[in-house]
Amino acid sequence: MNHVDLDRELPQDLSTMIIAWGGWIDAGRAATGALRHLVRELSAERVARLDAEEFFMLSIERPEVRLKPDGDREIHWPRSEFFAADGLLLFCGPEPHQRWRTYTNAFLDVAQRCGVKRIVSLGALLAGAPHTRPVRVTARCTDPVERSVLESWGIYRRPTYEGPTGISSVVLDAAERRGIQHVGFMGQAPHYLQDAENPAAIQALVSYTARLLHLATDAAQFDEAIEEFRAQCDRAVGRDKATREHVRQLERQYDAENGEEKLGELDSVKLMQELEDFLRKQPPEGGTEAR
């Protein structure tokens, strides 16, 4: 297969694939965090990888130099890796910079060689969601049977978004044309915590994926990390009056919507406008704010 390096002969009985990309829809590093957790939890073994040089601008997605135990150094290239475990094919990697059609064909060639009939995609977007409340997850799918399941969970949302998109949408569109069904889970991460890894969002995506695929995973192992994460957020928010009030406003909105069908499709343009408005109101760096 073009642009694919194999670690071993690909299994041909992996009917379901779980995927996550970093970047565009990986707020709080939740999608890639959930995927890597599943790789560890399932003791999955790498079976293949996509050639980094073909699809990445390496001055942007730079390789890393790391020290080995013997003191020598080695180069680690951007990783776009396929793993196999328990009838599943899993993939995790950064969003490519170029040649998306070629990338998509190479990606789906691996999936089809492994016998994939269904793809479960994981993602997370920045949203007006307070860190003090449970993480909301919405879902979409192409299969009517799975749609009824997602509707019974109260998380199915019919896609209505129009605008710029990422590699996940491109791959899933091409997969559907190859006869591969897909389910997508999308978590919401607080927009005022853009750079922080969010264990609560990771846990939410892992939990829904495990529930759908009947996987035995230990979600409780996230509890300590979530507690520490929320404590750190509380301390950071508590240092700024404007941020404190913004979080309180988000809490009131969340609580008012709780139990009501008001979520709808995530509107990325609206969310980014809210984020820009919030950041614009912050005092300049080095300025003072009444506490």
Give a written overview of the molecule.
The chain is of the alpha/beta class and 291 residues long. It has a single domain (4-280), classed as PAC-like subunit (Rossmann fold, 3-Layer(aba) Sandwich). It has nine helices and ten strands. The protein has helices at 30-41, 52-55, 100-113, 144-153, 167-177, 199-213, 223-238, 241-257, 268-280, and strands at residues 4-6, 16-22, 45-50, 64-67, 73-76, 81-85, 88-94, 118-127, 137-141, 181-190. The strands form two sheets. The protein has an eight-stranded mixed β-sheet with strand order 1-3-6-7-2-8-10-9, sandwiched between helices. A two-stranded antiparallel ribbon has the order 4-5. A hairpin with a 5-residue loop joins strand 4 (64-67) and strand 5. Helix 1 packs across helix 6 (199-213) and helix 3 (100-113) packs across helix 5. The longest helix has 17 residues, at 241-257. The chain is globular and about 55 Å long. Mean pLDDT is 87; it is low at 261-269 and 284-291.
Task: Give a brief rundown of this model.
The protein has about 290 residues and is of the alpha/beta class. It has nine helices and ten strands.
- From the alpha carbons, calculate the radius of gyration and give it in angstroms: 20 Å
Q: Order of strands across the biggest sheet?
A: 1-3-6-7-2-8-10-9
Q: How does the helix and strand content classify structurally?
A: alpha/beta
- Return the CATH architecture: 3-Layer(aba) Sandwich
By DSSP (H or I, 4+ residues per run), the number of helices equals 9
Largest β sheet strand count, sense and barrel closure: 8 strands, mixed
- Would you count the extended β strands for me? 10
CATH superfamily: PAC-like subunit
